[in-house]
Amino acid sequence: MPHILFDVSRMLWRAWGGQRATGIDRACLAYITHHRNDALAVVQRGGFTHVLSKAASVELFGLLLSRPKLFRRRLLALLLRSLLTRERPLHGMDRPLYLNVSHTGLDQKGHARWVRRSSVRAVYMVYDLIPLTHPQFAREGIPERHVERMRLVLKEGRGVIAISDDSLDTLSAFAGHEGLALPSSMVAPLGVTSLVVRADRAAPIAGPYFVILGTIEGRKNHLLLLRVWRRLIEQLGDDAPKLVIIGQRGWCAEEVFKQLDHDLTLRSHVIEVGPCDDDTLSEYMAHARALLFPTFVEGQGLPLTEALGAGVPAIASNLVVFKETAGGIPDYLDPEDDTGWEQAVMDYAEPESTRRAAQIERMHGFVPPTWEAHFAKVDAWLTEQGLLP
């Protein structure tokens, strides 16, 4: 008999809209894969919450994992059948564990009422509190909504899974500020996608190049790199290395979009690839001189550990969370130090770069976080808390 209720709301509605998977979506998919045989699916919409039967849950998990042809038609038919059935999936379940690893619905008043009415023991994953600590990088209204989400986590949560010590420390500070107790908590870094880097294949771009990976948004600090590349082009002309930008366009980055679309100086050396699949990403990463990660703030920073796991050097901001996940391997720089980033790029672009070679040496023995390790740690903790049999 299932003993877990797993919230699939984010994945369901993003899949319905045909949106590409983000880091949070990949975490949701990993949890679906891990719990598909022992969980019932939970769907939220507009304050309404519905729990699917075991058979309907298995079918829904399969649809979300495979995204088959006629996905929307099959999904709609499944949800309608489930809503019209008179089955009571929660009947006979004694205070089941409810897992929400997406932040979805936590700012809806109906969610708190459902948690209490259903007598579930809720465990929430907290990725970060960036909309609270750095509201200048959030879309309008998001900081206020995130405050409500975190308050609910603290008030209704039986437990919290944080993805880094840094995120848990920030949540603890927020709890103290709000005068609320921090539920039982643990830290389990997200697993990363293993990139199969084939250096024997031809490089997708001639000459040395660097990669920045992730949604183009204000906090990722693409503007710094555009300033750096403009100076490199002015100094080196055609010999300047290239910058490859991989990721979809996001928010709070209008100046970046303007320069990418209209700056003729940058156009010859800055290549915006947009979102891409793992095979294309691997091709670009295989021959990159380094991953560049000048972000102002992160919850974990998956591209950093993905790059190091694939043997690709990284130049990153000097964030506490990066040192937590990558130790002393990358070259760390102040995200506002244009000169330092420019010098690092020039050093790493050299064919026989000693600075790059030194980092590759430091990489030996690095093991990126895996989903196997994540679930081993989480499941053991849930069992210790009496939330899993």
Question: What would you say this structure looks like, in words?
Answer:
This protein is an alpha/beta fold and 389 residues long. It has two domains: 4-191 and 371-384, Rossmann fold; 209-363, Glycogen Phosphorylase B (Rossmann fold). It contains 17 helices and 13 strands. It has helices at residues 9-16, 23-35, 54-66, 71-84, 109-118, 130-133, 142-156, 165-178, 222-236, 254-262, 264-267, 278-286, 302-309, 320-326, 338-349, 354-363, 371-384; strands at 4-7, 39-45, 48-51, 97-100, 121-126, 157-162, 184-187, 209-213, 242-246, 270-274, 291-293, 314-317, 331-333. The strands form three sheets. The protein has a seven-stranded mixed beta sheet, sandwiched between helices. β2 and β3 (48-51) form a beta hairpin. α3 (54-66) runs antiparallel to α4 and α9 (222-236) packs across α15. The protein is elongated and about 70 Å long.
